[in-house]
Amino acid sequence: MERGLQHAEATARYNVYYGEGRDTYDIRGRVVHESIDHPSRILVDVREPEEYYGKLYAAWELPEKGGQRGGRIPSAVNILWTRVLEDDGTFKPVEAIQEIYSSQGVSEDNEVITYCVIGARSSHSWLVLK
After folding, report:
1. Which positions are catalytic?
2. Better-predicted residue by pLDDT, 93 or 12
3. What pTM, to 2 d.p., does this model score?
4. What is the pLDDT, as a whole number, of residue 29?
């Protein structure tokens, strides 16, 4: 379905949004290290499987943003960030998304840390899990 151009004057409303503060979600190396094999935390690597297995240092389209070394953090599971999307880019139904994550051991009982290389893909998965 194609939408035609509209020539009406746009109106905008001013809104103020308050977040919880950056430090709330700022995961440091110590926390990640403590999360390896932790019984109630799970590390979710959202990168391409080739990145997870150390065969590729960066996503296909971002070679300049590559990691410093190949592989993954020990005990991390790989759930590619795009698995929650339909072919048209919309989100899959909630039940399908829950199945994707639960099949890898992620549950509401876990504290989940998502990661990638620069944070763009992991922030998408973090939002999905919220």
Report:
1. 116
2. 93
3. 0.74
4. 82
